[in-house]
DNA sequence: CGACTGGCATACCCGAAAGGTATACCGCCG
DNA sequence: CGGCGGTATACCTTTCGGGTATGCCAGTCG
């Protein structure tokens, strides 16, 4: 049902496949098998248009899927799981994409659970956890206390970020070797030592060596300033996409270990915390984070 | 969802598994994984009872499943597939179990399709097909015109049927060799030559030989008369179960080829005919006919 | 008018998940 | 306290959903 709706909304198989985070052939097959089982043609092909029966199907199917969602919510409510509060600490690398989406997902599916979110650098979050002020941590290569359990929400590669005036700004992909002699811009290590080490370790693993110039101002918001004239940064791909205009990001052709976004929580989590964990996992599947 | 409802209705995992035509362990696992995903316990175990949340789940899930059924019906209706008529010829071996169930399934899911059913022996049905009076044939080892297409709806083994006073009537299983010297009762070959040959061929394939006494009256309705004193019959298992009281049926321990129930139709079937074929296949899956 | 391109279909492969078999465990009853 | 009904656990098999490579066809443009 989701597939038919996606094809109808996207106006074609290829576009729908992308939206569903899958490829076109299995999608075509699933639709065709459904058509065989129903004995009814849902789409005219070439161009892809809904048939009369297809319109009917999409309309009813939307209702059924919505109701199915309701089932789990009502059940959770009946079990008394849908209340309480979660205190989340997150890093700046999640502040543009993942954290807002998770916040939205929790609000939509579990309005009864209150979320207290606090952005901070590695040391601040660690201190807050030690003080018992946080239940959950969300970040990339955060320092996490050993008594916490962890799951990976997203795995992705790095991209190179340069200013729009850079000589490579028009390229799709580069090797790090092409950047020899340039300066790698980074925030000071003390703000997020594990992440800092992970990125530089990954870069050095390719055999490349760079001068690292540590911008005294941490944060990603003033990139166009620091990259105006020269130098480059190395960031997870999803962050590269979120940057303001005047900035270009390039795929790296060298072999590099991927970077992981992790969710951590202390043992014996409250029902509200487990609900947040489940919701985050669902979100990751829906958004295709395990893949890209 | 179907699984949870089945467990709730059956009052236990084992009984529910039987109703679903599967075994208990995978059912238990599925339920447990659903409970994990929901973060909610649906059943108290030992004894198996619904929790409060479980009741909520069952209630909502019933509605969703019913609506999902509706989706396919509305779609078929919109495609204009749900009208027309099918003329079905069937043999007496299907008259107790399969044919009534198929009739009921068609009435429930496709009330717009009219069914004309005609019971008859092999030769009568063949003649009716030749005269263009039938669209579909349902039977066990019927003679089917070569231009018909065929699918297998059910595969099962044979049982031995004896009168209640027979010396073996209390037994669970027998070898055909234990019946040496007794008379195999059968209807005259001319009524259904292919079926007759299939059964006797299967029996002789075990190495056993019997006197065959052909009851001049065909039909299964007067069995208790013909089996009152002595003799036995060999029938497909599902027919053995349907017999009147005063009759016992026994599993055969010898190796014998199974007997198939087949559905046949002429090429280029009308939409109504393909609908009936699909419905029959669904029915066969639901009833577990491919297995038993 | 034919070569090109975009988009769906076809063929084949692989891994995850569903179902089956064998068996252990556990509460209940005699 | 031992047998029994019924659920859980361990392990294997099969099925199906998804991926990659490639074919095919309609519409378009040189």
TrEMBL record, chains A, B:
Keywords per UniProt: DNA-binding, Transcription, Transcription regulation
Residue intervals of the HTH lysR-type domain: 1-51
UniProt-recorded Gene Ontology molecular function terms: DNA binding; DNA-binding transcription factor activity
GO cellular component: protein-DNA complex
Coiled-coil boundaries: none
Family affiliation: Belongs to the LysR transcriptional regulatory family.
Protein name: DNA-binding transcriptional regulator, LysR family
Origin species: Nonomuraea jiangxiensis
